[in-house]
């Protein structure tokens, strides 16, 4: 984006682990800095014309989401926009009994950590409470599994990697065994591959800070 829009300045934040290395070649109009989005952001009031945030549903607990929306409001210029893209990870539409069971496990894990997997449905309220208006909102349905063609296959692969990455944490926090987890994952993706019309929704919303 920084290359496509050379007259704009881009600032990226992350708590740390995934920040580009200082030696990484970046366009001159693009900087990254370590910052926790769930705390006070290191930016003056009304700094940004446009804020973009994506796939943070598993990064904040419910209280942190409120703080994030308030900070976004503070650092957005009057008339500026915030775009939020999030998967509705709390629901596999068209999934069968294994998907429902797996999502009960995911929900239990999330609740234990103060997370709301379906926060996407609360976000419009949090954003309007913070002071934004809703400029645009919609969703895309992404197929999951072999019956969803190449996109379905790739998305299933991605989803499986994400769930696999959470295994150690899940075993630590829930009373399930390693073999139960592996078996659940195998049965889940067999089921998803075998069912047509299975999908997850990704919600895309643009909010505006009212002009002063
Ligand atoms: C699932 S990734 C999403 C990355 C990116 N937004 C995207 O769409 O590809 C979550 C990222 O958020 C970062 N992160 C987690 N909690 C954070 C926080 N409180 N403040 C800033 N970054 C955070 C993680 O280090 C990780 O790089």
From TrEMBL:
<dbReference type="InterPro" id="IPR041698">
    <property type="entry name" value="Methyltransf_25"/>
</dbReference>
<feature type="domain" description="Methyltransferase">
    <location>
        <begin position="5"/>
        <end position="80"/>
    </location>
</feature>
<dbReference type="Pfam" id="PF13649">
    <property type="entry name" value="Methyltransf_25"/>
</dbReference>
<protein>
    <recommendedName>
        <fullName>Methyltransferase domain-containing protein</fullName>
    </recommendedName>
</protein>
<dbReference type="InterPro" id="IPR029063">
    <property type="entry name" value="SAM-dependent_MTases_sf"/>
</dbReference>
